[in-house]
Structure formats: structure tokens, C-alpha cells
């Protein structure tokens, strides 16, 4: 079997090893251990650039994996990454078409950077390679490779939701973008809804429906081990001591409008108003690391969240109790695992999400003898697999409030029964099964 060639917008080359990299690297860790692998993408660096600038490929070998990266110019970063990928495709795919700010020149830069990726990857390819392209930044990359004569198997996986055609058509030239995806031998998405939406779009623009469901998971054994072993960490002990035995609610999300954070804060505020018996007797930690902080919509969201947290703490806080502990900086993954284990309730209430692995991590981190309760949005990709969670509509503050009260007063027997139903799916659908199933499908679709 030939090499696995992974292509993504960002590459974890700078970290040097997979275990310190981000979510995609963690998910791909097992797949990248087998045989020789190449991972290609943007270095994360921006350069001034000039007319005719042609970036060089930087190679970095770590074990059996060769990381190949290129720099982008400031103009490419702005048009391809900031404006088109994250200013157009991200809100559109999260059902927020009203937040799009389309400019044709950004679309051209997006296409040009995908063509640049194809041109720089081409000389690195070898006979027998299987190419696996990831996410919305690189929708047209497969076609760009085919245009250069690449005949290797090419697969594509979309980590975020895909909207119905009635929304997708709001994107100028959406039909052309969908047609480029015929270059892929296998297309993977997170949920049945995403597959149906994408295939409906394909049928409308007159191309073959190829989207299939490959739900992503975590490494539950390793995460559970981290959660238990981390309880002796000084920072975890400090958090536990600060709780003084009070029940503990946790939320962990990037600071993004898709995560429903404002609606979540409103739900918590409604909970404190409607169930005064919990005031002063529960702690809520919301970890929301700032993302895309220079984008106006994200700056506005942070301002609104700061105001909401301040209002809630000002209204309900006392000299010895702060209703919301609100962090906008990241917490190391190993610490989060133990924070999850301490938490009596996890609030996972996105307005729209591809999968949301926080829900699965929370379940994996629990003490099975005394597990906490997962409150989960109907609109998380994980929802169809995790129906034994307390399911809520994140737009309904009263529903969130009622779920919080129910979770905090739930008998131990019901908590264990719910966890017993959630646990098998978290252990069955893992990062390993996701990667294996996709790579197998790609190999069967077109043998290398």
C-alpha cells in the first residue's frame, strides 16, 4: 500500500510531534503511524510577497511523517483564509448566511491559493499515494489536482456542517464549487443531515451524489486515563478546593458565534432567576478561547459575552460567590480532561456544529460509578449518537434552565443509567475507526 498524503489548511509541523498538535492531528494520530506519510499545507507564516512570488516548500521529517509546508503572502492569507474561508464559507456552512460579506476578488484568491496548493503538492506525489484532503478551506483542491493530471485516489472530508441548497445557493457561484467536488472519489461528512444536504445540492447542479457519513470520534481510552491521572495535578486540586463541595457546571468552546454562547449565558441567567434555590450553591466555568479576534463579528461577540457575564455576576453574585467563571484563554487539554471529570454537568449547546467532540470527551472523562450529566444541543453533530443526554434547543432559554435544574437534582441511579447508554457509542465510534473507515473506503473506491 502506498503513502497516505494528508492535506489541510494548517500543518502541525512546528510542534514536531503529533501528541502536541491540534484536533485534526490528534484524530489522525493512529492513521499516520502506519507506513510512510506526507502531510502538506500552510506553515502558518505570512510573508510580504511580491509580483511573481513563488513560495518554496519546506520539508520537516518526524519519524515516518514528512511535513511539507508553504508560506502565504499577507494578501493570500487575508483573501483566502480570513475573508473567503472564514468570512464566507464558515458562516454559510453554519446556517448564518446573513453574516457573509462576499467580494469576488476574495473568491479568486481562494481559488488561486487552492491552485497553488495543487501546484506545490504535485512534485511531492509518488505512485501509489492516496490523498486525503480536509475541510472547507480546500473544497476545490481535488479538481485543481485533477487539472494537473493527478490520477491517484483523492478523498475529501468536511469537518463542519453542510447547509441545504436553499442556503448554499446564497453563495455566488455555489453550483461551480459543488461541481469541482466531482473530482473526489470519496466525500465524507459528519452526519446524515450533512450527507443529505450535500447530495441534494449535487443532484440539483447535475453531478453524482457522493457524500457519505463518517462520524469522527476521540481516543476515549487515552482521554479517560488523562482525566483520572490528572486529578493529582496542582491546578486541578486548586479548582476542586475552590468549589468547596458545590456542584460544578462546565462549558468549553472556541469563542465563535456557532457555539451558542450568548444563548447559553441567557439560559444560565434564566436558570438562576427561575430556580433561586441554586444561587450561591453551584459554580459555572465557561472556557472560551478567543478565535479570529481581528474579525469584526468575533470582536462584537466577545464584547456581548463580556457584557452578559458582567450582568449576570453583577445581578446574582455575592461577596463570596461568582455565578460565572469566564475564561477567554485556552486551557491545556490534559487539564481539561480532569476538569471534565470534576464537573457535575457539561453544557454543550451549539447553534450548529459539525460533530462537537467536547460532548464525547465529557462522557469519556467521567467516573462511571458517579458520572455527571451531559446537556446537549439538538443541533450538535453528536446529537444523533447521544440521545441519552438531556437534549435541548439552544434558542430556548427556559429549556436550558429546566435542563440545568434537572441535571443538578438528578438521582445517582438515573445519572449512571444515562451514562451507561452514552458510553458504548463513545467507545465504538473513535478517531481510529473514523480514519480506518475513510481510508478503507478511499482504497476501495479507486485502488492506488
UniProtKB/TrEMBL annotation:
One Pfam annotation, family name?
Glyco_transf_20
The molecule here is called Trehalose-6-phosphate synthase
Q: Could you tell me which species this protein originates from?
A: Acetobacter farinalis
Q: Which family does it belong to?
A: Belongs to the glycosyltransferase 20 family.
Task: Kindly give the SUPFAM superfamilies that the UniProt entry links to this protein.
Answer: UDP-Glycosyltransferase/glycogen phosphorylase (SSF53756)
Domain of life of the native organism: Bacteria
